[in-house]
Amino acid sequence: MTENSRHSSPVEHGFPHLETVRASITALFRRLTPDGIRAYDTSFAPADAAFGRDEDLHLGAHRVASAMVRALRLPDARMVVAFRPMRDAATVELAAGPEYFVEVSDRFRVHRRDLAAALAHEVTHVLLHRLDLRLPTTAENEILTDTAAAFLGAGWLLLDAYREDALTHQKLGYLTPEEFGYVLARRAGLFGEDLSTWFSSPQAYEAYVRGRALAERERRRAPLAAASAHARRRYARARRTGTPPADGSAYRFEPDGAGLLVSFPCPMCGQRLRLPVRGPLRARCGLCRTVLECDT
After folding, report:
1. Strands (E) located in the chain
2. Could you give the CA distance from residue 210 to residue 204 in angstroms, rounded to a whole number?
């Protein structure tokens, strides 16, 4: 896992990896099933990430790693944590198990508040390895790992590790801060979870708010019944011509015999739904089983 620590390597912002993030969420639902996803209904607790004032470094590291293993539902995995000088924040040796060797940067000897964040990424690597879930490229797999960590309840720590001031900054992981916020908001939409009081970093909270705003806009896109009046008007114009707006709108039209179908991604899992264009209706996503009120 990479990290940034000086302004010579500025933190990237915005949503440059959004399509891979969305594909990662869909892949998680397909691999784990909706019931499997809902088993991760409890996020990693801040108390489990905290170090006591006089706690031994190595004992504390293994305590946090064991808590992360439990949170990510890997009860038969054991993490052996070691510290050494390294450029990356941490790395894990993926093997058959049950023991996995995690090496962590020496900087976490001092900055212990972020050790759980580094371990969240590496233990999620182990989970995805066990699930045999991967994307085509190494870069995409790192995005998948961060997305899975956040969506399954551990990755809020990676966002909280983002801090920035006039002299230095730090960001762990491969998602931008806003992308972490977006994934956490997608998770919140599933579990009704409010993480806003958990962030110790003001910059992390601000990024969460920006990511949450995007997720909320997606939950109000046409043809969902909750769409804004402006979105409804644009959708109606597109429906008349059978051509979606040229601004990246998520819905698409296609002929279906004498009628018309509209397809659009489920706001929960990203699976595309295909519905007849015929007015108000209720649809059930075939992947995540979310019931959606629509006006097609």
Report:
1. 3-6, 78-84, 90-93, 99-105, 163-164, 168-172, 252-256, 259-265, 272-276, 280-284, 291-295
2. 10
Amino acid (one-letter) located at 75: P
Measured between alpha carbons, how far is 116 from 94 in angstroms, rounded to an integer? 19
| Distance in angstroms between the alpha carbons of the first and the last residue of the chain | 43
Residue 52, Cβ neighbours under 10 Å: how many?
A: 9
- What confidence tier does 6 reach under pLDDT thresholds 50, 70, 90? very low
Which one has a higher pLDDT value, 95 or 68? 68
Tell me how many degrees the CA angle 51-55-57 measures, rounded to the nearest 5: 85
Running DSSP on this structure, what letter comes out for residue 224?
A: B
The model carries a pTM of 0.92
Q: What is the mean pLDDT of residues 200-205?
A: 92
Tokens read off for 114: 């972020």
Amino acid letter, residue 282: R
What angle (nearest 5°) sits at the alpha carbon of residue 165, between those of residues 53 and 58? 25
- Work out the pLDDT band at 4, boundaries 50, 70, 90: low
Distance CA 69, CA 34 (A): 21
Distance of alpha carbon 67 from the chain centroid: 20
Do 197 and 209 meet the contact criterion of CB atoms below 8 Å apart? no
Of 27-36, 131-140, 171-180, 195-204, the range with the lowest mean pLDDT is: 195-204
SS3 169: strand
264 CB contacts (<8 Å, ≥6 apart)? 221, 223, 250, 251, 252, 272, 273
Cβ count within 10 A of residue 13: 13
Per-residue confidence (pLDDT) for residue 1, from 0 to 100: 72
Please state, as a whole number, how many other Cβ atoms lie within 10 Å of the Cβ of residue 193.
Answer: 17
Confidence of residue 224 (pLDDT cuts 50, 70, 90): very high
